[in-house]
Amino acid sequence: MAFASPEATLDDIRGAARRIEGSVLRTPLVRLGVDDAEIWLKLENLQPIGSFKLRGASNAMLSAPRAALAQGVWTASAGNMAQGVAWQARGMGIPCTVVAPDRAPDVKLAAIERLGARVMRLPFEEWFQILATRTHPGVAGLFIHPVSDAAVVAGNGTIGVEILEQLPDAAAIVVPWGGGGLSCGIATAVRALAPAVPVYACEVDVAAPLAASFAAGSPTRVPYQASFVDGMGAPFILEEMWPLARRLLAGSLVTSLEDVAAAIRLLVERNRVVAEGAGAAPVAAALVGRAGKGKVVCVVSGGNLDPRTLAAILEGRTP
């Protein structure tokens, strides 16, 4: 089944900013503690759920008609979107169900359950199909898509507005590519306000369908390997996201698991920031110069990293 491209406008993004004010933080933008590059960190890991996903989830739910929420809400998520939906559902007093892949980190599943959501687990391939079909037997309520929903994209786009207000002379922005809702939302705002500033997606080399799609000129399936970078990476991109990505993004910067692990260590050592793999991937790409020179902003999308994984990385290992 084909779905429409989740287009958002600058007006949609500004409306989302007003709607979610009070539910989300205006996160700080701080400089990475290195001398040989000017890299700035947009710290979305400081959101109440430890992830940017609270922005899109909150906007989608707060903009929905109350009648549509009568049976509650549900989402398909490896953890961060689930926490965003569950956090907002608890505040609104409505039930929430989360369908998660069986390889989702325990630290994220535990956080979802603490927020009062019911969790169902599925094999990864079966779970990933929900992102394309938006249905699953036996689950009721309003489905909040973690990626390709115009209200979610608009909520994510509020990050782009904040970045340009905090650093008007930014030279480039690097954003992790999970499904495209974050990078395309930010790029929508930046294209409207500062069209000369490129917005790059970032992927890891064990799962980089966007880079392959840019190279081929159309959505392309790639081999997929699960890794500790669980907040991004898939065997393919959602077809409805391709038109937005192709039009809005300057490309995809692909980095290695080893470089991501090194970036996580550097963030802890220099800035006392704990980032999950997806949140550190833009920093890894920027550190080796893939985003160019000047003031490069890296969106640290989340900080929900399993403690055992963090311990391994701090010991110098790549999980």
Automatic annotation (TrEMBL):
Molecular function as annotated in GO: L-serine ammonia-lyase activity; threonine deaminase activity
GO biological process, one term: L-serine catabolic process
Required co-factors: pyridoxal 5'-phosphate
UniProt entry tagged with the keyword Plastid: no
Domain Tryptophan synthase beta chain-like PALP: start-end pairs: 23-302
Entry-linked SUPFAM superfamilies: Tryptophan synthase beta subunit-like PLP-dependent enzymes
Keywords for this protein: Lyase, Pyridoxal phosphate
PANTHER family: L-THREONINE DEHYDRATASE CATABOLIC TDCB, THREONINE DEHYDRATASE, MITOCHONDRIAL-RELATED
Protein name: Pyridoxal-phosphate dependent enzyme
Organism: Eiseniibacteriota bacterium
